[in-house]
Write a structure and sequence with these properties.
Layout lengths: L1 H57 L5 H9 L2 E5 L3 E2 L7 E10 L6 E11 L12 E6 L2 H8 L2 E3 L6 E3 L6 H4 L7 E7 L2 E4 L6 E4 L1 H8 L5 H6 L9 H12 L2
Parallel strand pairs: 7-8
Antiparallel strand pairs: 1-3, 1-5, 2-3, 3-4, 4-10, 5-8, 6-10, 8-9
Length: 243
């Protein structure tokens, strides 16, 4: 009798175990596919939001300085939505995209995907920094953002961009690697980003381009492209050429 029970248990295990493994593997596979699909959708939506946000910055009538600096910029980082927990002290963060200009051809490429976060963004205007644009003015500024993670103000120089009356005249004396601007509730200002950390979003980069790539592959080597980025790249190129 004991032998029969033992044989029954062994047969049961042999029959059920493969199905359990198959079911578990299938569930993991479905979860992976679902996460990948979510990343693909998130990346495309982020690019579209970045384009709309960039258009609002370019249409900013009261500050010619931003448009003048854009013509000289070697890279543009756009975070269409930064969420801030509190004014003065509080967690802040969001996602953004980075596009760069080829010095030889003048063509813009990308985007690469990142997160940006800080204990406090030190806004110079009240409210939340719902939109942030960083202009990489030097090769050093671009190269810093090619790494997996960079701390602004520590690993690379950053300064609040000039705004308001007389700001255009101040652009000639700027020497920071990265200049930062913010838009919150319809108001524009420079924004202090010392201490903010910018990190690569590997999952979004992979989902958007269909394979594992890093910012150097996307922005320097230009090994990959995505037709959904054409609208954003066109707007950046047009604004950078504008007289």
């Amino acid at each position: 009798m004991e032998k029969k029970r033992w044989l029954f248990r062994e047969v049961t295990v042999c029959l059920i175990l493969p199905f359990a493994i198959l079911l578990t593997t299938g569930m993991i596979g479905l979860a992976t596919v679902s996460a990948s699909a979510d990343d693909a959708m998130d990346s495309r939506q982020l690019v579209e939001k970045a384009k709309l946000s960039f258009d609002r910055f370019v249409a900013w009538k009261d500050n010619q300085a931003f448009r003048d600096l854009l013509k000289k910029a070697k890279g543009v980082f756009i975070a269409p939505q930064i969420l801030k927990g509190a004014f003065i002290v509080g967690a802040s963060g969001g996602s953004g995209v980075f596009v760069t200009r080829d010095e030889k051809t003048g063509q813009w490429g990308g985007p690469a995907f990142y997160t940006i976060g800080s204990a406090s963004f030190g806004l110079q205007i009240g409210g939340e920094a719902s939109e942030v644009v960083l202009l990489a003015m030097t090769e050093r500024g671009v190269n810093a953002l090619l790494g997996s993670s960079v701390k602004l103000g520590a690993d690379i120089g950053v300064a609040a961009g000039p705004v308001g009356a007389g700001a255009s005249a101040a652009t000639a004396n700027l020497s920071a690697d990265i200049l930062s601007f913010a838009r919150s509730k319809g108001a524009f200002a420079g924004i202090a980003l010392d201490g903010a950390i910018v990190k690569v979003r590997e999952g979004l980069n992979e989902a958007y381009y269909g394979k594992k790539v890093d910012p150097t592959d996307i922005l320097i080597k230009r090994d990959v492209k995505n037709r959904h980025a054409e609208g954003l790249l066109h707007e950046v190129a047009k604004a950078a050429r504008r007289k």
